[in-house]
What does this fold into?
Amino acid sequence: MFIKRIFPRFIPQFNTVRDSSRSTNVPLEDLDLEFKGLESVVKNPLTKTNGPDPIYLKLRDDMYNIFYHDKKFNFKLGGALPELRLAYETWGNLNKEKDNAILLFTGLSANSHAKQNVNNLNPGWWEDFIGEKMAIDTEKFYVICVNHLGSCFGSTGPSSISPVTKEPYGTNFPLLTVHDMVKAQFLLLDYLGIQKLHASVGSSLGGMCSLLSGLKYPSRVSKVIAISTCARAEPSSIAMRYLQRKAIMLDPQWNKGFYYDSPGPVNGLRLAREIATVTYRSGPEWKQRFGRKKINSIDPVTLNPSFEIENYLNYQGEAFITKYDPNSLLYLSKAMDLFDLSEGCENMVDAFQHLTCPVLIMGSQTDILFPVEQQRDLSKWIKQSGNSQVSYFEMDSLYGHDTFLLNLNDVGTALKGFLETKMAKSGEISKSKRK
It folds into this structure.
């Protein structure tokens, strides 16, 4: 109370986002054409800048496939959408039995474009991992990658137009959980007629989704691969994501989530991405890559950035502000914080009782966002639950959390071996040499 009284401007009052008289998680039956969003929000248009429009506003529907769900979709924490759509892309061919499908779950800020295809020739975020004779062999498997519910690359999210209000949902979008993301993607599998996956695969947030798929739909998933992820969000990662959300929500142009007729909270999003970048890579990489190199050794020292590492973070922030919707970052990062597979169970071992299929867990020793101890615990808990078909692979990589994006040799080799081999017994912990 003392700190709050003396320094009130530094204590963000996030509870003002929601008007106490009207929840932003509005059940479908309570929605009507007169509902216009939070009553406490005054939407004053702000002057547009001359900068580029966000990339997610320039996407065309012919760049991906679209799954429409025209029925009410209920969220775990309450609230509903009258309808939803998911953007997805595929590679390879679904066999006659429809049992060779791999569902690839993305990380927080990725889109469905994991690999180039005829509709989008740009390289994907897992370009070198997917394809003929590659880690995920498209001669053998039918690969599906979906843009998460709540994101901004073609799937329904806060930036989408509500069919009820005819305006972007903003923070009227229901609070999101990993359960909701997985549930939505299995609706897509129903639409495609796929009753059982060959495997669910995911890293980071995607790893959370992959684990939950095996637990929530045990009869529909033959194998689970979870990379650089956890069984529950731990305080260190929650703290870093909280700071990212705080940076956005304290930006005056966030406007409580209703900024789509304005430039939006670009300063907050820029800082959020810079914070995130620190957690995605590792100290050893920073030291090897940047050391104490200065931007300019001639100019006098000022309070402005002096070191190349600072310049790199600035670049990452600038590059991100045109790529992603700030509200999507708020919603998806909060869903990651809420993730806890032991919820409703006696303990974590009890939580994994229904994960009986073969499982591959992978982690990087330099990951500071999802420390490798979390992957070790995952492997241990799943084995203790009675599953003897658990393989664990630990990588000594410079790239920290981003190892799953960059270390083709280790990640790709383990993926290919696991996907194409019938599991007979538990794998031992193995460690790769640093690449």
About this structure: The chain is about 30% helix and 10% strand. The CA atoms of residues 21 and 39 lie 9 Å apart. Residues 178-192 form the longest helix (15 residues).
